[in-house]
């Protein structure tokens, strides 16, 4: 009986110790995933698409690029922005005009963030699945997610173009639900709600919540 009591006390202390480590500096390492057989909700955003950033239709009805674009394309356009007819084929070999299906619908409070409709996931060699949202000209905070077995890690990488430098906002608390049937087929359909520790201005709360519908890519093999 005494030995059993000692074991119980040991397990309680171990649990307290684990929680202390987990909550160190006001952040947590991982949260448990809530697996769902058929995740409900409006995921119709996955039917929408956009061109890559900086690609758009000009007043001549041509798909063009302006902003962060390959420098060689500017000599293929006249002063009004029209792409020369004899340069069209070469232009579209250089500029990516792929229709990109939306994979993220979310809202947040983050630094230097205008918005993104995309998050990409990749399966690593050891089985961990890593995801990150896309940044751009005006969006410099990106959501990072790692899924391993039944647990999820999340944080935000912020690379300021001003004087705030590079920062990482660790997860304070959160929840995530993932459709298990689709996950087993290589698709992440999820609902998440994360709060992050603000390492720049601690009194200002940071959060990121929303929905994901994204295919899991296999990690590219290194070419010999």
Can you put this structure into words, describing what you see?
The structure is a single chain. With 224 residues, the chain is mostly beta strands. Helix content is 14%, strand content 38%. It has three helices and 14 strands. The strands form three sheets. The chain has a seven-stranded mixed beta barrel with strand order 8-9-10-11-12-13-14. It is globular. 18% of the residues are buried.
Show the helix and strand layout:
Elements: H1 2-22, E1 31-32, E2 34-36, E3 49-50, E4 55-57, E5 63-65, H2 88-94, E6 100-101, E7 104-109, E8 119-123, E9 129-133, E10 141-148, E11 151-159, E12 166-179, H3 180-183, E13 187-196, E14 206-218
Parallel strand pairs: 2-12, 8-14
Antiparallel strand pairs: 1-11, 3-6, 4-5, 7-14, 8-9, 9-10, 10-11, 11-12, 12-13, 13-14
Largest sheet, spatial ordering of strands: 8-9-10-11-12-13-14
| Residue share in helix | 10-25%
Estimate the strand proportion.
Answer: 35-45%
Determine the mean pLDDT: 88
Distance between the termini: 63 Å
Radius of gyration: 23 Å
The structural class is: mainly beta
Number of helices: 3
Low-confidence stretches: 5-24
Secondary-structure element pattern, one letter each: HEEEEEHEEEEEEEHEE
Q: Per the principal axes of the C-alpha atoms, what is the gross shape? A: globular
Largest beta-sheet details: 7 strands, mixed, barrel
Number of strands: 14
């Amino acid at each position: 009986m005494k030995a059993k009591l000692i074991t119980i006390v040991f397990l309680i202390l171990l649990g307290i110790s684990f929680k202390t480590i987990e909550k160190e500096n006001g952040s947590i390492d991982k949260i448990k995933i809530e697996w769902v057989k058929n995740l409900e909700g409006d995921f119709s955003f996955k039917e929408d698409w956009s061109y890559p950033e900086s690609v758009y239709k000009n007043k001549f009805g041509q798909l063009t690029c302006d902003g962060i674009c390959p420098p060689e394309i500017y000599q293929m356009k006249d002063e009004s922005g029209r792409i020369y007819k004899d340069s069209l084929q070469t232009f579209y070999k250089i500029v990516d005009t792929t229709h990109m299906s939306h994979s993220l619908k979310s809202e947040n409070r983050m630094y230097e963030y205008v918005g993104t409709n995309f998050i990409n996931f990749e399966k690593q060699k050891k089985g961990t699945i890593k995801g990150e949202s896309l940044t751009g000209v005006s969006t410099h905070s990106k959501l990072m997610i790692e899924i391993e077995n039944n647990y999820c890690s999340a944080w935000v990488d912020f690379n300021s173009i001003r004087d705030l430098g590079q920062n990482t906002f660790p997860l304070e608390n959160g929840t995530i639900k993932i459709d298990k049937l689709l996950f087993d087929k290589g698709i992440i359909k999820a609902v998440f709600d994360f709060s992050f520790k603000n390492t720049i201005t601690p009194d200002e709360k940071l959060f990121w919540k929303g929905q994901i519908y994204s295919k899991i890519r296999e990690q590219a093999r290194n070419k010999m």
